[in-house]
Design goal:
Strand content: under 5%
Radius of gyration: 22 Å
Helix content: 55-70%
Number of helices: 4
Distance between the termini: 47 Å
Largest sheet: none
Order of helices and strands: HHHH
Shape: elongated
């Protein structure tokens, strides 16, 4: 099986070739779609920044600025009133 749409090639010809390769046994389905392994050091650094980022930003913002940001987000989400 070719998996989720994000794993499939966008080009119809590439998709067809992938299906034929799997059907004829030239490639295994799971081999073609495996993602590369992530670097554990990079993952830990990204998590470190992500964990403290939102909280640190919220602490720096004034209540008026937080309200302004929330109002802008609501307008984008639900339409401008």
């Amino acid at each position: 099986m070719l998996g989720r749409s994000r794993n499939r090639p966008r080009d119809a010809n590439q998709l067809a070739k992938g299906i034929v390769d799997i059907a004829t046994g030239e490639t295994a389905d799971h081999e073609e779609l495996q993602r590369p392994k992530k670097n554990p050091a990079a993952v830990s650094l990204g998590r470190l920044g992500g964990r403290k980022g939102g909280k640190a930003r919220a602490e720096k913002l004034s209540p008026e600025r937080r309200s302004e940001i929330a109002r802008k987000a609501a307008q984008a989400r639900y339409g401008k009133d």
